[in-house]
Design a protein that fits this description.
- Chains A, B, C, D, E, F: InterPro entries: Epimerase_deHydtase (IPR001509), NAD(P)-bd_dom_sf (IPR036291).
- The structure is a homohexamer of 278-residue chains.
- Chain A has one domain: 3-Layer(aba) Sandwich (Rossmann fold).
- Chain A contains nine helices and nine strands.
- Chain A is α/β, with parallel strands linked by helices.
- In chain A, the strands form two sheets. Chain A has a seven-stranded parallel sheet with strand order 3-2-1-4-5-7-8, sandwiched between helices. A two-stranded parallel sheet of chain A has the order 6-9.
- In chain A, helix 1 (12-22) links the parallel strand 1 (3-7) and strand 2.
Chain lengths: 278, 278, 278, 278, 278, 278
């Protein structure tokens, strides 16, 4: 591949992906809303751009083969706050990719698109949407958008429903953890698979307690190597007792399943991406 | 029921529903973007309002028990054109209904939320989304929104995926027709069912060739009475030969499955609702 | 068929079945725990017996071809109270039928064997057990018993999961009603079907709102004729508002889904069978 | 449609279809291995031909739009006996249809392609093959052939798995009966449906005891009108007791499920088609 | 966890679990029907009790957080013999646990609850019951009991359907073996999982030939480490030829699938638990 | 096992299996159409025979316990060319095995029996046939034949749907590769499993990108050890770009999915078996 674009490059996961992605292409264009993101890696350039602006996205994606779209407002918030970056931003990415002839979008979706399914359902990648937040609702929207552009324009996309790509600090994360190494493997498979059509894949490590089913997309070749069980003894020894009547303890979305809609008020959470807004 | 609101009351289907809905409540508030809609029925009042305005929707829904939400830009068009009435409009309806304590939203969804599924799949109401247009994408969005508000706020909704509520003029309509009488029965069931939670139901008559499966929502009691087979001999005698390689002939969405995304350019189509834009 | 036995013949449903069953055999032996049941029909004889006594059941079933087993304590109650008639009684019926060479057991099971499934699940006859009461738990036990005797001894059985065979007095019954005529048709099909192996069938009329799926046992030929929708207008006009957060309103078991375990304390309920205990 | 070909026109079912098919086309070409079939209907011509001869089939199908392929050795028999007419014959029909540009093959398949499935499985049209005889094996072969030519050449086909198109004389036929009128409706739908791709449909009337599931091909619009239950009282009163340990009583294939492979030795059976061999 | 109770502590599997369970709690109360069980482990105390006595179970479970319920008559036997310990005993455990406020029951269920399913069905944990013995019927009963108490009282339970926790001495055991180490891991996961609701899990090692599917309860984190394939060469070299017409060779229950109901007459079998009766 | 027969012993895969199979029996009879196959292994004898001749197959299989049937015309070709060796040949093998009392047929089937299923469907071993070539059609035929002889005669068979047992030279083979060692393990499991009934299993290594699902036949104990991912970097670096609109890139059958029916005209392909025709 010649040219690859990464959105949300200044965010938490985006920052982490920059260096590995430079290994997979001749030229990486990183983009975010900030004016700059500091020192660049070999093979990387930076272009500032607003996801909510079609002109910006047309400019940023010009000449690219694929885009890894991680940019978004990366927390639960009021619908009005997510409308621009998460909804319109996704539309701009797909429409610009289509106009410019890109081959594929690799999208940072989230478990929160299906977070209200009970954890006792071992959900596969064909399960119906069941968002837990406006944040998850925006992920549903982008997945449906990807389905539409594949069916109508032949634009491929893979939707990585990331569970928790962060330090393991809770019992839930023993099942939902995605290690950074496994994240990189996942993104690499999404890029190097010869064909993907429209696909959905869960972003989760090879945890003993992983509660989701990737078998439908076995052909992608994603085989995670890390396992959160290494942290189990410590985490469980210090955990608060769980409450089987609490949707946050019983549903795939975890804390997002019980959070107030539109206003998390939570200090920390296992969110996926993290576009810095200035 | 005391007070019911009907959005899109000036549209094609909305116009037809006004009189029957007055029979199901003490007070029907019809609303649309136009200044007035002419002569009112007994028990009906009219309030002008823009779906894209939260203030308008808060004003229109105030004091209501339920809302039948049929308002939308009722054709395929550019995403930008649908963003206000179809996406933001749906959000405003659900959020205002929640804030005001309504019990239920009855929504005019569409087969186009799943229109790219091949007709040889007898799709049920749990099938994954597969929109065929931006119009269908907006229906997917509203269905996910309904799921979210039910799970988080206990606000009930029924999503009527109407196939073709119009005169039977094509072979496809022999399967997809929804008669006006059956539409009224369907809306009535959506209103009088004691509980609906979050439900999806196909709006189609009892056609011999009906290609979709409502059995999952049998409990709603929707039992259509009309059958488009009465038109079959005439329609088939004069029909152009179908093309089994054409997605428009093979998929549930019909002409929307083969139309160009964002710009139908079609003179007539089997659309559901029809908010008059002035 | 020469000789047929009916247990629970003094109960509510048993009483109703006596006369029709005399039409299906040369000799009907009715049995219950009472000393007598009054005037007999032509072709009917009566034998008193206690379900919990193997000796009694061996005596009653001697020489019979099939047994229609409706006898049970017919309400929710303490486990200890149901242990004899509902659990041990079922064992005695199957074991005696096996020892005596009967061909088939037709069993009055109940929706309460699966009553905690949400009504939004259109449950078929293969769904896993999910009882709502000790009463339902006994039905689960008898179904498993029937499976065991079919697999190990070739003793056939049909398990009629009756929903509500009583007057329609609540919104729930609009879906769950089984008319007496349809009950008789159902029992007749269970008897005249050439083979049944081990089968489960829902006992429900052809209600518009019927929430369960008998398609897996289509081969039995049960095609109900009555429809509770005739009562809908009256019932719904006078019904209390339903509560979508109440398991009693949302689950198949209805009031048994929300009743206190082991002690109904309810004045009236839609129970199936009704062995008079003196 | 201009020109339609009917194979097996001298057989039992073929004979019955000749007149109705003349109503559906300008020109019907009937064919069989016999030299002539007597008096012709208006619009009908006859061409003698051997199914096992590609030359014959190329000659017979020339210029046709569709073919209704009912010709076959119509009973269980040694594999060697069926190889020509049933296997090679089917290949000749599909290959000649492809070479000559026909639009569609309507094929007289049979329940015997899936006859070893237990009747307690309500099999749908996607169930895996499970033939009960060499006769059924040939039906499996033709179905796979139809799938292949659709996928590779876009040649459409509908495979009518006929259950028992004959007088009702056994308890099994109470479920499996296909009336002649319903057969004609079925063939008509297979012809007039705008698109069929590759489809399988069970040929069975609207019997109360029908043991198979056509819902997957609802879009074809086949809605049988007859019901064998009208014969039930007589048939059941005089039937031998069934044996639940007998595969012939428990499997969809009925007597073919228990017949000796390759040599039926049965005087009468519920076979579908009946090419006269001279 | 502070206090844990183990029933059937004098039985074969119970004896093995005593020491490991002391590592998982501050205080382990072992119980069985015998007067004593000899030397105790650190942290362990012993209380004699009869499963069939509610008073005994109320006394034994008092103050506990969870109970590992392994006690039962541990072989096939007459129904009357199992009624007390296996049926009433299970009821007493759940009812006492509910009254005393325990959080969870971990139950020693068995493959014999579903043992008549053919081994060619890769059964998951949602499969319908299909017991192979009265022993298995009692396991079905306890599973339904666990479902009921979870739905009605929020009392959690995990039902470990153990296949064969014994030395590998037959070809069947190459698939069904559960090593002692894996048993301990399984029980540990059942205890340390933050929430389990009502769950079923197969107790089987990571055998190449394991015939059952635990994927639905992946969230429990049970990942067995042992593999009976290490014994395959020896076992297969000396095995009697299997008989594909024998239910014992073809069904999940193995020898219990072909044993006479109620009276095994077998010298050794792969049973789960083993309450010593004196 | 005493005596084992291997057909297609002169073919590519047959040649490879000869030596390992001598380890699994007292006497291996290798057969092919050639007069001789050169030097024999210890315990091996050779008999020339034509698959299309029943007499030859009766002679070759006489006295054997099982047969590994790999012989076939091992490429796509005209139907007429495959009719003898692939269709009639399979019939001869099964019929002769039945007449001679063999216990089991192990058959070299192929992914091409289901090759037109899209690779985004993770197909299991119960999926409906969907052949991609006449070659695949013959595999479908032999599978149905195996089902028939199991149901009617109790003759066991395992159908190994081999994906690509050849050097890894294309991106597709990263998923479809079956290593020689894994092939040997697979054939060994098919032979040493105590019972197999009628089973289908995919022949594929433990590739990260393996696109098919063997879980339904877990009981066979086939656990492949090799993984084509070791070749991924090289293969992908030099691969032509894939085309997501090409059935050859999107379907399980790979190049056979896009090849012209009946005449491959391809220089090399990933075919399974390879009977030398002289």
């Amino acid at each position: 591949m010649k040219k690859l674009v990464l959105t949300g490059a200044a965010g938490r996961l985006g920052s982490y992906l920059r260096e590995p992605l430079t290994q997979l292409c001749d030229e990486l264009v990183s983009t975010d809303i900030a004016d700059d993101i500091g020192t660049l890696y070999a093979g990387e350039s930076y272009m500032s751009g607003d996801l909510a602006s079609m002109d910006d996205m047309m400019r940023v994606l010009d000449g690219a083969d694929m885009v890894v779209h991680m940019g978004a407002y990366a927390d639960e918030g009021p619908f009005e706050k997510l409308l621009g970056p998460n909804f319109v931003g996704a539309y701009n990415i797909w429409e610009a990719s289509h106009r410019l002839g890109l081959k594929r979008v690799i999208y940072g979706s989230s478990i929160h698109a299906v977070g209200m399914h009970p954890k006792s359902d071992f959900i596969d990648t064909n399960v119906a949407h069941r968002p837990d937040t406006f944040y998850g609702l925006a992920k549903c929207f982008a997945e449906d958008l990807g389905s539409l552009y594949w069916d109508k324009h032949g634009l491929e996309s893979v939707h990585m429903r990331i569970l928790s790509c962060a330090q393991v600090t809770s019992p839930r994360a023993l099942g939902s953890w995605l290690s950074y190494d496994d994240l990189i493997q996942l993104v690499t498979r999404c890029i190097d698979s010869p064909t993907v059509g429209f696909s959905v894949v869960y972003g989760v490590s090879d945890n003993d307690r992983a509660p989701v089913d990737n078998s439908q997309v076995n052909f992608l070749g994603y085989r995670p190597k890390d396992n959160a069980e290494q942290f189990a003894a410590d985490i469980l020894a210090n955990a608060e007792p769980a409450n089987p009547q609490d949707v946050g303890d019983m549903c795939h979305g975890g804390p997002f399943a019980s959070v107030a809609l539109g206003n998390s008020g939570m200090a920390t959470m296992d969110i996926v991406d993290d576009t810095k807004k200035t």
